[in-house]
Design a protein that fits this description.
Number of strands: 19
Strand content: 15-25%
Largest sheet: 8 strands, mixed
Distance between the termini: 32 Å
Shape: globular
Number of helices: 12
Radius of gyration: 23 Å
């Protein structure tokens, strides 16, 4: 067992947050090492190539608002990117409507549109609005019974894999558009002239989101040590224990999923271990599908709330960028509502039937191949134990020189730009902690 010299900062994970932390630590002149358990950097932000088709880990799009982060991201990607105006739709009741559903009921069957509009107006004028205890109550208060019934509740049940009653309302202020009354009225008669929501425009590398991760990896001041994850972490001695090496550190920046990190902490207090075990997330199975022809609709992604379909969202990579598939062909991702292991031979005919109904393919024969994929940590579940659990775990980590960051390291729901920001902030926190430690030394 080798005992290495102490490193001022150790980073666990070379996804976007970990690599951003490394980049900004380099800018600050802070020596560090970065470890990644997989054989390639990028985390979920990678692109796979299969028979000339390119697939990301479902839709990964850059919504860049911070000028400094935008400049960095585009610099890492290089010149080969496009900026795209969103084309997303909802498929329900046998028709497409614009996103978001709550402000675009025009085109639905008249009785459904009326139920949605009537329910929204009643909710809007209802003065009795106590603080919602869960996400279902949030939907009913803000959108009314019709919109909640026909989209918000069924879609989010399929997305999160649990009832909206199990989820708090605290997660959604940024990601669930709350339209004004005039937007809902205009959307009911087809007069909305603008796209709503945080993701109306996005940047996308022409050859897939993996180009961002590849560019970041090349820019780092430290070599990424691939295929390496500590078996345990001595948080008191501040040491990472690998099979072949002990790495002392002053500050640890971890982007590992929070419960996984706590499992690795040797001798962590029982209340911290128990709180981390209460943190929940859902995994995701999805299909990468290659088409022997173009996608039948020029859409980027489609939300599907109805239970009769085995998927809740479908996206088309080759509509983001034509280079994601061979000329005249298309590549899709299909996110599955069922969390159990898919049986592709029985599942694919149902998926093909749904895609045909949605006019995304002409017939099942257009599917060249389909691959089953899995994401272990897909969505953090903001259940009713979420905040109190974090209030136990996070202060303990901070007291012991551990900066935990990222979508899963921070245990949150966030965007790719957020991941870059989290890394920048984690680097600043690590440098500050190093300074404080140095100031305390005699």
């Amino acid at each position: 067992m080798i005992r290495s010299p102490r490193t001022p900062v150790a980073i666990l994970g070379a996804g976007l947050t970990g690599m951003s932390a490394s980049f900004h630590l380099g800018r600050a002149g802070a020596s560090h090492r970065i470890f990644e358990r997989l054989g390639r950097p990028g985390g979920h932000a990678i692109t796979l190539e299969d028979e000339g088709y390119r697939f990301d880990r479902t839709g990964h799009l850059l919504h860049l608002r911070d000028a400094d982060l935008r400049a960095l991201a585009l610099g890492w990607i290089g010149d080969d990117w496009v900026e795209v105006d969103r084309r997303s739709r909802i498929w329900s009741h046998g028709t497409y409507t614009r996103y978001p559903f709550q402000a675009n009921t025009f085109g639905l069957p008249p009785e459904v549109a009326y139920e949605c509009l009537h329910g929204f107006v009643r909710a809007y004028h209802n003065p009795d609005k106590p603080t919602p205890k869960n996400f279902e109550e949030f939907c009913l208060q803000h959108f009314g019974e019709g919109i909640s019934k026909h989209f918000m509740i069924p879609y989010n049940t399929r997305l999160w894999g649990v009832s909206p009653r199990e989820i708090t309302a605290a997660w959604c202020s940024r990601f669930v558009p709350l339209p004004k009354l005039e937007d809902v009225l205009a959307g009911a008669v087809g007069l909305n002239d603008r796209e709503l929501g945080y993701n109306a425009r996005f940047v996308y590398p022409r050859l897939g989101i993996g180009k961002l991760a590849e560019g970041m990896a090349k820019s780092l001041p430290a070599r990424i040590e691939l295929g390496r994850a500590p078996a345990s972490i001595d948080f008191e001695a501040r040491e990472l224990h690998f099979e072949d090496e002990t790495v002392p550190y002053d500050v640890l920046v971890s982007t590992a999923p929070l419960p996984v990190l706590v499992e690795r902490l040797a001798g962590a207090p029982a209340n911290v271990v128990e709180a981390a075990r209460r943190l929940r997330c859902t995994h995701l199975h999805y299909l990468d599908i290659a088409l022997d022809g173009p996608c039948g609709e020029p859409l980027h992604w489609v939300y599907v709330p109805e239970e009769k379909y085995p998927f809740y969202r479908v996206g088309c990579y080759s509509n983001f960028s034509a280079a994601m598939a061979p000329p005249g062909k298309a590549s899709l991702y299909v996110e599955l509502a069922d969390r159990s292991e898919p049986d592709l031979p029985s599942l694919l005919p149902r998926v093909a039937e749904g895609l045909t109904e949605m006019r995304l393919i002409d017939s099942p024969k257009q599917i060249r191949f389909a691959r089953v994929r899995r994401i272990d940590h897909a969505y953090v579940i903001f259940d009713h134990a979420y905040f109190e659990s974090l209030e136990v775990v996070l202060p303990f980590l901070e007291r012991n020189g551990i900066v935990t960051a990222g979508r899963y390291g921070g245990w949150n729901y966030s965007s790719m730009e957020d991941a870059l920001r989290f890394g920048r902030d984690a680097a600043a926190k690590a440098v500050s902690t190093l300074g404080e430690s140095a100031a305390k030394e005699p």
